[in-house]
Amino acid sequence: METIGIGVIGCGGMGRSLATSAHAVEGIEVICVSDLQEVLAEKLAADLNASYVLDYHELLADDRIQAVLIASPPFMHSPMAVDAANAGKHIFSEKPMAPTLSDCDAMIAAAEENDVKLTIGLVCRYHATHSAVRGIVQSGELGAPACMMVHRIGGPWRSGGSYVPWRLERAKSGGSLMEINAHEIDFMRWTCGDVVSVYGAGGQYVQKESDYPDVVLASLQFANGAVGLLHSSHISAIGGYGGRVDCEGGSIYFPQTWGGNATIQIKPFEGDGRQIQISDIEVPPPVQQEIRVFVDAIRNDTPPPITGLDGRAAVEIALAAYQSVESGQPVPLPPYSRV
Prior knowledge:
single chain; about 350 residues; alpha/beta; nine-stranded mixed sheet; six-stranded parallel sheet
């Protein structure tokens, strides 16, 4: 098996997760990491027996590196990805792809022009609950999906590990709908298909330090006629993450996505239902798996399962929800988003 040399740009919590996960995958060598905070880069490099640089351009100049994992703040994803593509490196960018569609388009164009792979870290596709729910819907055993509801709610950003200034600016983070809920938007689109319009209601209630809504209820109209509802919130003292899919022939209910005795309940209108213990669903470690399939696409010269267009679609849906919250009107999505 050909060993793929990897560089990691961004050595914070997510960069460390990606780097250590890549290090655990057979056939991958983490060669160099980069971060402006030398203490982070030096520590991660030492843990992985890799080198480190402060300027990521030096990493991109290393011929041993074939691909990069980008885990910088979202507003830096696009310029770093474009630089990587121009250096001939394949690109794995964390979600959200970028806070603007123009930045997403720049990443897609640079990858195409330089004939390199581009994938986005929408890792929930590799989690047990998400992949099982999607598999049941796509199997057709309950008929076509009619309604999908997902909630992912929690409290405001507080001082500590998750509180960094760029998270409070939509231009830098994409706001909650991108930085957090890119996963749920992608999950709903992956399960029910392309989205043709978005209606959003919400506002700013508790997280006054930010410049974007801390509550959004986003209603999605899918191309196949199904409808969806995403509940995104930063104002809940009682958090939660779960949902349901109601189909023509029955329902799937997952009140918790993981943890404890979480289950997926499947009940047709006719006949007996069944229950799946989520802890019994065997999947590879999700972050390792998303990196593994990216590297497999490089080795096999095939498209990665999650494309730049998938990442762009999640951004476009989030932007439409923000626009709808501000205007009070539904926002149609152009055909390009459904290519």
